[in-house]
Structures are given as structure tokens and as C-alpha cells.
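Blackboard transcription, Thursday session:
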Amino acid sequence: MSLLIKNGFVYDPVNGIDGEVMDIAVEGGRIVEKVDEREAHIIDASGMIVMPGGIDIHTHIAGAEVNSGRLLRPEDHVYDFEPKTAITRSGVGHSIPSTFTTGYRYARMGYTFVCNPSMPPLEARHTHEELEDTPIVDKATFPLLGDWWFVLEYLRDGLIKECAEHVAWMIMATKGYAIKIVNPGGLEAWGFGRNVRDLDDQVPYFNVTPREIIRGLCIVNKILSLPHTIHVHTNRLGQPGNYITTIKTMDCVKDLATSDKPVIHITHCQFSAFKGDSWANMKSGAEDIAKYVNSHSHATLDMGQIIFTDTTTMTADGPWQYTLYELSGNKWVNHDVEVETSSGIVPFRYRRKSYVHATMWSIGLELALLINDPWKIYLTTDHPNGGPFTSYPKIISWLMSRRAREKTLEKINRKARARSLLPSIDRELTFYEIAILTRAGQAKALGLKSKGHLGVGADADIAIYNINPRLVDPARDYKTVRRAFSNAAYTIKGGKIVAKMGEIINVPDGRTYWINFNMDCDVFSQRDLADLRRKFREYWTVEYENYIIPESYLKVSAPITVRVGV
Amino acid sequence: MKIIIQVTPRYQFKVPVYAECISPNVFEGKGLEEISRLEVWEGNRRRRLNELFKLELVKDEEGELTINLVGNFSKVRGIGAKMSKGRIIVDGDAGMHLGEGMSGGEIIVNGSAGSWAGGSMRGGRIEIKGSAGDYIGAPYRGSNEGMKAGLIIVHGDAGREVGCLMRGGLVKIYGSVRHFVGINMVDGTIFVRGDCAGKAGAGMRNGRIIICGRIPSVLPTFTIDSIRPNVDVDGERIPGPFYRFIGDIADGGEGKLFVSKVTNPHLSHYEKYLQ
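(Written on the board underneath:)
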């Protein structure tokens, strides 16, 4: 079926289109030059905003960890449920919705591509099974490699080439998309009840430092020419004074950038931007980080904004989750994933009146507003760690309206308000910039050629929001903006209308993107392979043969072939 | 002088009925016609209130709204949920989740009530003339937002985990309770005139539990503090003497567990630790 979206205000930053009134034609799931108007289904988008489908670079929506979170929190489900309809399934959950509901809720907001950023490789099968049950949206998932024993061993011995081969095998075996690094070295140290304190702290028994892990994997990432950069959750996340570690982390790979292309992505940066040396005098380090990012081009960030609500924190950062349990006294889960990584879950409520929480709220927005180039910072809540993804419209309204920020500022902790930089920031983002933060920038960072724009040949993933940029001043009518972004007038996925004014009308399966390496040589020499099998037998509960996920296991596989000469 | 609406089941329910709409807050300002169209769930079927219940306006004068439930409501769940004013009088038994999350008003049950009576209560008063089920004042599964304020009186016996995760308010049980009374409680008072089956105050961090009857043993994570001649509960002086224990030490708690000395001679060995 062909579609013609007429007279919308089009925001397509990749192609430099800033609110021009134009038509978008769709045929065969792609955007085309034009279609036969008599045969096409016509969507009248006059007075509406047309953007590429939203992209979320960091959202925990599937996998063993998320599922444990669901099991841990019946109280999260009891008041937020959706009954089934003729074409959708029922589901529950506020901060950790069930898989189907996750897909529907993303589609309702106009999102069409999501990245599940932390997959313990051992749980890859489970993750893909849940992603398969997350309908509509396309997805990619990043295996956790920063504390993988093989990686640590190769990097300790300086075997970068072998490390690259191994990572390539890992990504193909788990059908992953990028290299995720969580608290490098710290998770391995956590296995011994310790953590690493900084970039140059030794990982116990491995004689390798977080700096060497990050640099090593960054070089591996370049050798393998992966579309995305390394995706880093920094050391000392959530500890006062960690902003300096974050800057050091970005700085330690500065020399590896040869062009303007970024080489590192610091994820949920808000949690890594605390100044001060205790919770009592913790303050925002957003200004320093923004200054660094403004003067360098090798790093991108995402916000990790928090929302004042009851949510569930879950990361692979076991030691941090344990600290969070000690801080909150809530129920908790902590788990060591064999030789690979760790993980933890703690339910958490962010309170307006808490000095620390209010400061964290401020830091996220400060980061987004103080970093001048919107192509370097993306909108996320690190769902569900900072808040559920359904609160993105709220964040958009804060970013677009000083008044909306002031309204919330009035209600937060007084000391936090006095120290917040927000009252001094006048910047209000435009729809064009929002389109970068929520789509175009993320597509660029992920190296997705056919997503995040509306040029001819792009995938027909389109979001239409019922808001007229000529009539509505987002700075004043921020509530209108919030409403419009909560329920897209139309969400089009692969050329099909999937949601219309908040109602799901079509449930196609989303594709799973993964990296298929086309190597010049065999991935492993016979000797390496024998070594790998031996280690699987010794260290893992899963055999080598059962570990690899065949492509046929994915419902809709979308491999991206990358040619490498290792 | 008040409005009284009488609600009577039309038949004996076989499956649970979720009738959170039976609440003065929902009924207020609506005509009988409108009330009869309110939505309830019978098992997995969506129903109208008047399909399951007969509704009658007994008295119509200016004043507070009273809902009088007559008959067997033991399968009807969530009666008076989230109510903040008015009265509900149940002449018969009430089902689970009675007055869940209520913040004001009054519920009187002239019969027994199911589990989770006054769950996550925020204020108001519940009086149960018969016995009650488990988890009085307890929050929904998984949540830690237990009863915060208000009063629950049970004239008969109560089940397990009375006042689970309680954070304030008062629960009075005139009969006996089963295991784990005041488990994980943070604050508030639980008064038990009868016996307790054991494990009182497990995991409690603060608050008071008073047991006048017999308790087989006190948890080893409680330490004896003193013997008190009497205890004051809500302005009433309960004559003792009572052993006063502090715990649950395993959770760093400072809760007070009062156990009657007279009815528990087998606990007298604790007295030697008081010297």
C-alpha cells in the first residue's frame, strides 16, 4: 500500500528540513519521490508536525534483568494495566511494562526503534525471546563486554587483534549490535566484594585497569568498524564527585578519534555528573561535562533524565545497585552472571523534596541545555532507571519551555532549587532540535543509514504529532506539546499505520538489527576455537554449541553486514 | 438525618466480584439510576451494579451518605476502596480488600471480613464485629506502603500478618491473632487482647505491639528491656504487668513488644536478664 502524507510541517534534521510544509510519499515500506495520488492512502497532516519515527538509544525493555524486575514488583502492575483489544494483548506495568505493552506504548508515542542496552551474553536467548514479543518497534541489543573474562585476558596480554576476533564472534553469537561497557572492571571486582575506584585502579586477579579496558574496546570497535561507538556506563556511577571520572573516561579515548566521528558514547550521563564529595554537598557537574563536550567532537551522551515517580532501577552495575539498596532499604536483587557481568535491581522513588533527587533532576536538563550541539546529546531516561519511557513527552516540554521548568522548580527541594543552574539557562529547544535529540541524532550515533530521516530511500518510519508549530508557542503552551507527544496522531512503521491518536490499529513484528561480520579470514584459528570450547566447558553452565543463537531464532532478522579485515 | 442506600445481592455469587464502586465517594451526588449503571466485575465479566445487586433508597434527607449492605458480601471485594467520607454498614460478611486505601469515613461490619481489611489505609475507621482474615492493614503484594493512619477494630479473631508493614495508626484485635503480627512494621500500634500464635513483630523497626493473651515464645531477635505495670493504648490504660521487649534486632529495629506477664509464666526466665 502506498501512502501520501500531505501538507505537514516536516522536521527532518538529517536533510536540513526545518518545518517546511511538504508531502511525504511512501511505497513498499520506504520513502519515495512520489506516488500516484489516486491510488495512495492520503493522510491529511495539515497543521501537524511530521518527523521520522522516534529512536531510543538506551532503554531496558527486555531480558532476564527486566523480567526479574517484573517479578519483583507486583505493586508496579496493579494500578497500571491495559485490557486486551481486538488486536492488542493485555498487559501491565508502570515502570516495567510487559513486553507487548512496551511495544504498544512506544508506538503510541511515535517511536519505532529502540535499543536494549545491556544484555548479559549468557541471557541473549532470553533477551531475543522477549524482544520478539515486543511488537511494532525495531530493536537492537548490546551485549555487555566490559567485564568479559576473555576481553580482560586479551587486553591484559595486549592481544588487540585476538580480542577483536573474539568480540566479533561474541556479537555474532549473541546477535548483538554494539559493545556495551558497564563500570569496566568494577563488575569483575564485585565478584570479590570490591569495586574499582577510578580509571587506573587494578581489576583484581586480572592486572588490567578500566582505562585499558575502555581504550582496548574502543580500538576493537574501530577495527571491527561497528556502526555504533562503544556504549559506556562509567565507573563510579551514582557517586558524588564522579563527574571527573566521566570527563577522564571521555578523555582517555580522545587520541583514538581520527575524524569528526565520535568514538565513545557516555550513556545516562546524568548519573555520572555529580560534583561534591558526599551526598550532603553533592551538586551538579553538568557545566564541566558540557564544557568538555562542547570543546571536543569525539564523544556523544544521552541524558538519563530522572522523573519524580516510583520506578525500578536495574543495571548491570552490581556494586552500584547494592549501594542503592543500602541507601533505600528497599527490596533488592543482585546477581553475578557467571564469567560475564553482574546485575542488580532495586525499586526506587524519586522525590521532589529530596535534595539529591531534585539535584539529579536538574543535572539531566542542564546537560541537555548546556551542550550546544544537539547532535551530541540524546533524550533518554535510561528507562526504567530514571523513570519510565512514557515520560518522554514531559521531558520534551521541560526542554522546550523555560516556564515548564520553572513550574517544576517551584515544587522541588529548596536547597536544590537555590543551587540549580536551570534558572540561569534561557535556552528553549525548538521542534527541529527536539527532532535531533529524539531521532536524527540517535540514528546518526547508531550508524543507522535508513532510519531517523525522511529522505528518499529511508525506511517509512514516521511520526505525526497533532500540533501546529505556527500557532502553538511551545514555551507557553507546554502542556499542549506534552499532550501531542504523548499520543502521536499517526505512527507509521514500515509504511503501515500502526497507531492513530493513541490507538493501536496494526501490530506488525519489529525487526531485530544485528551485526554480521564478513571477515577476510576465519573468525578463529583451530587453536583458538579449541581454547574457547575448553573454556566454555570449564567456566560456563552453558555449552559452546548451545550458546550461539542461530539467525533462524530471530523472528524478523535484519543483519547489517560489516566487512572487516582483521 | 441522612441518605441511606440499601444494597442487597440478587443471588449467591460463585466467583469474586470486584465492586470498588461501592463507596460513598462514588455514590455521592448520583441518582439511584446512575448508581445502578456503575461498572463492576464478576469474575472476568463486566457487569452493571444493578445486575448483581438490588438498590434501594431507604431515607433521603440532607446529610451524610450511608450505604447499607445487607446480605452475604463475602465474595465482594474492595468495598469502600479509597473512600474518604460517609459510612458503610455491612449487615453480613464482607469480602477481601475492605476499605483498601481509605482515607476517611467509617465502615462497620456486623459480621466477618476477609483478608486485607483496611489495606494501605490512610485514615478513617473500620470496625468489624466478627472476625477478620489475614493481612489487616497490609499493603498490596510487593508494596511497602502499609497502613499509615486510622483505626481498625476487630471484635473477633484475626488471621496472620496483622499490620504487616504498618507505618502508623492503630489496630485493635479483641480476639486472638495468628502468626507474624506486626511483621516488618515501621510505626503505629497493634493491640491484641487475646492470644498470639507466635513470631510477633518479626522484622519490626519501630512501633508497638501489645499482647494481653498467651504467646508461645518471643523471637530470639528480641531483647527484654523492662517490666511495665501497664500500657496506654489510645488513651486507655491497659493493666499489666507486661514484659517489654525491644526488636527486631536482626533488622536494627527499636520496636516495642509488650507481652503480658500473668498469662505467660513460661517467659519468666527472661527476668534473670533484667538484673
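Lecturer's comment: The interface with chain A takes residues 139-144 of chain B (CB under 8 Å).
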